Design the sequence.
């Protein structure tokens, strides 16, 4: 089947209606379908897809999963929700203060929960992002996670999808998740992706943080090298809240992360981090947007890239500071270490500052290994390839090192190091 | 154990070493002195195998298991594994790599080359504890990134710590005394003296006689315009301190 057609959309729509999906999601899906019918899939003509042409998707065949087996995710001691080829399994301890509801079971939700959900998330629906629109019309299921307990909790979302490498078609996996955090709640969240075979996954994640809430979220993207990995993240921060969000992009042949954070209350604070460690023909695209709607807020953005072979990375960091958002303190950094001359990085900051009493710093670098650093390590009996890996590891691990939850931090560090250790550095 | 014969080296196509000869035997301490730009640092970098230096002629023979091998054909890490060490004039900062990891990786690389089994973190830490006493270094420096944010003196101490850990057979110390105050100089020099033995050799490259008050050389060489033009004992250093280099050069 094609990535979108009237026929396939009507099928999905009928299924969703039968399951009792909320009306605003059905409307949103309608709008998304119309949007895509009108605009088509993004190509290089679209400024935000200048370096990541998705036009080819219209010629690709997509199938539902029929393959057994699954990707491997890490084990952890946290509460878990598993997403495997469209089916969802929930393992949450009763005392956790975490409530989880499947979207496909919306009609059975408590009335109060339905109300919370609508109030918070019907506002999220307007999008000008084609991948988000695709998810909106395609997603099979997902969960609404409500955090209300006073104790800090940890939660591990595991996406394990499987496709078939022997086929030309891609197995689709589209999930949409929502997180609502009540005031002063705290959550450590690891969202992990692992695929087996050719998978097209396109997920969205929406979160709303109440006053004083704290969310530490990491996205560990370890999909296999034949997969397409797309992710759309939108998070709203109320006053005094804190978000640490980091993306560790290791897998997928082609990946795109759209990350958008809206700072909607004063004194909110954001650490927006990312690291991409890529090789071979991998293409990893990170588009981030931080909207400071309210002042006295802080955003610190730091994305680092490590590229081997002829891999390609895109970083585009937009920071918007509204006229009223005085005393905003925003900084952005994108540093890239390219291990070969064939690797390519396109990096671009986009600052739109309408307030006059703010700090808005940004910087971007693309560099090769410092030959003096290399020689220093070599002169201490460390062979060149190993020296390269040591320096590269030191460069990239700055990002996972900052994750506040120790167990998840170690998983992130291990995954990044493992990917780096697999690099073929013979030509260097 | 090390024989440098008629060594000629270009840097950016400009001749810097113009036929240098030097023979170093186990147990010896050599001092190479000379004015700025005479080629002192070039010599040490060439011995360690820096890729930016172009050897146009001559050879460097090095005794490996009773056989004189051409050192210049070996990669820098191979030279280090065979016991060649350079204490850098300007030690390099390596962000993100902890000093402890760096030292252990380096140590294990040599141990492995010698056919012994590598040490675990705990085993290596035991060794390291003793070695940092030699250079009177605060153990907190072990958990910081290599040389990052170290003062000039701390960097030099860290070089000698590496020398202590790696136990080289031939160590070139390139201006290790420069930028040190008198206390740091004493500590670094004491460290070197403790590491000196009848099996290894030390080549001190220095601008000033000051270091030689602490580490007594067997030979003092004057390097000028890419060649060794004078060799003597420690009294030559005193003479240079009094008279400068001009009386030799002209």
Sequence:
């Amino acid at each position: 089947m094609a990535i979108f057609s009237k026929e396939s959309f009507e099928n999905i729509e009928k299924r969703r209606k039968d399951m009792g999906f909320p009306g605003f999601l059905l409307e949103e899906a309608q709008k998304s379908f119309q949007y895509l019918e009108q605009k088509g899939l993004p190509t290089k003509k679209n400024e935000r897809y200048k370096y990541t042409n998705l036009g080819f998707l219209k010629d690709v065949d997509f199938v539902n999963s029929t393959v057994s087996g699954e990707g491997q995710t890490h084990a952890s001691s946290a509460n878990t929700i598993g997403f495997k080829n469209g089916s969802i399994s929930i393992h949450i301890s009763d005392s956790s203060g975490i409530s989880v509801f499947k979207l496909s079971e919306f009609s059975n939700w408590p009335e109060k929960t339905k109300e919370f959900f609508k109030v918070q998330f019907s506002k999220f629906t307007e999008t000008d992002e084609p991948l988000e629109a695709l998810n909106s019309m395609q997603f099979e299921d997902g969960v609404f996670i409500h955090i209300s307990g006073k104790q800090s909790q940890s939660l591990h979302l595991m996406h394990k999808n499987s496709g078939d490498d022997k086929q030309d078609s891609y197995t689709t996996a589209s999930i949409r998740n929502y997180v609502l955090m009540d005031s002063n709640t705290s959550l450590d969240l690891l969202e992990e992706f692992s695929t087996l075979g050719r998978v097209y996954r396109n997920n969205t994640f929406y979160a709303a943080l109440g006053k004083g809430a704290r969310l530490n979220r990491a996205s560990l993207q370890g999909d296999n090298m034949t997969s397409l990995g797309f992710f759309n993240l939108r998070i709203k921060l109320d006053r005094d809240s804190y978000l640490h969000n980091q993306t560790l992009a290791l897998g997928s042949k082609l990946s795109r992360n759209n990350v958008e954070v809206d700072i909607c209350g004063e004194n909110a604070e954001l650490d927006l981090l990312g690291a991409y460690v890529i090789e071979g023909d991998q293409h990893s695209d990170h588009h981030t947007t931080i909207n400071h709607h309210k002042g006295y807020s802080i955003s610190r953005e730091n994305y680092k890239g490590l590229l081997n072979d002829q891999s390609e990375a895109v970083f585009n960091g937009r920071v918007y500071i509204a006229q009223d958002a005085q005393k905003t303190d925003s900084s952005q950094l994108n540093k890239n270490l390219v291990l070969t001359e064939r690797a390519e990085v396109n990096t671009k900051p986009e600052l739109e500052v309408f307030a006059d009493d703010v700090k808005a710093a940004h910087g971007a670098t693309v560099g090769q290994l410092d030959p003096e650093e290399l020689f220093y390590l070599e002169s201490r009996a460390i062979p060149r390839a190993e020296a390269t890996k040591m320096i590269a590891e030191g460069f990239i691990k700055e990002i996972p090192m900052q994750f506040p939850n120790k167990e998840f931090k170690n998983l992130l560090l291990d995954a990044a190091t493992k990917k780096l250790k697999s690099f073929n550095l013979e030509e260097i | 154990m090390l024989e440098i014969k008629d060594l000629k080296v270009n840097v950016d196509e400009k001749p810097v070493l113009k036929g240098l000869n030097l023979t170093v035997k186990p147990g010896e301490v050599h001092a190479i002195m000379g004015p700025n730009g005479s080629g002192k640092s070039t010599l040490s970098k060439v011995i360690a195998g820096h890729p930016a230096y172009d050897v146009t002629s001559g050879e460097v023979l090095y005794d490996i298991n009773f056989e004189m091998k051409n050192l210049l054909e070996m990669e820098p890490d191979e030279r280090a594994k065979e016991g060649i060490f350079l204490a850098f004039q300007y030690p390099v900062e390596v962000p993100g790599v902890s000093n402890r990891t760096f030292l252990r990786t380096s140590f294990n690389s040599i141990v492995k080359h010698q056919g012994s089994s590598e040490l675990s973190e705990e085993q290596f830490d035991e060794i390291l504890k003793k070695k940092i006493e030699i250079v009177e270094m605060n153990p907190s420096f072990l958990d910081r990134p290599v040389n990052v944010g170290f003062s000039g003196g701390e960097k030099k101490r860290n070089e000698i710590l590496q020398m202590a850990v790696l136990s080289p057979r031939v160590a070139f110390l390139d201006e290790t005394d420069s930028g040190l105050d008198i206390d740091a100089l004493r500590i670094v020099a004491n460290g070197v003296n403790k590491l000196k033995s009848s099996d290894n050799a030390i080549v001190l490259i220095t601008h000033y006689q000051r270091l030689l008050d602490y580490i007594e050389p067997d030979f003092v060489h004057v390097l000028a315009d890419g060649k060794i033009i004078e060799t003597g004992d420690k009294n030559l250093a005193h003479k240079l301190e009094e008279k400068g280099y001009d009386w030799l050069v002209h």
